[in-house]
């Protein structure tokens, strides 16, 4: 006699306050080309361990410092990366947090931001590269998983990289 698989309840989405706390914690002292390579390589290693079909991108000051496309990712992931990254660059906050702030107001980013949805996506997966006493200088972005998983994947890698 086989038993039914146990039911799992998905973790609830983080609140706006929890997302803002992540951004206060995940701050770099500096961020160089070498840091981008090391962080990108960490993300690739974690993605390979999980067999995650993602594309990974790191930008600083308008320059792409790292990009990798793992098996299963597609050109669409690169388009999503660009759209999510533009949200971080415009709002100075993670793409997931920006979307959550709109949802907390009872609306959506698409309905209320007045930005072109072909150029901007407030979906999880892009996180600001924030440097102490400087501010947001870039973004680290992942695309290929559901948006909350993309966000959590980037946050977990940043926590490991920054040792926080």
TrEMBL record:
<comment type="similarity">
    <text>Belongs to the UPF0303 family.</text>
</comment>
<dbReference type="InterPro" id="IPR010371">
    <property type="entry name" value="YBR137W-like"/>
</dbReference>
<dbReference type="Pfam" id="PF03928">
    <property type="entry name" value="HbpS-like"/>
</dbReference>
<dbReference type="InterPro" id="IPR038084">
    <property type="entry name" value="PduO/GlcC-like_sf"/>
</dbReference>
<protein>
    <recommendedName>
        <fullName>UPF0303 protein GCM10010339_10780</fullName>
    </recommendedName>
</protein>
<dbReference type="InterPro" id="IPR005624">
    <property type="entry name" value="PduO/GlcC-like"/>
</dbReference>
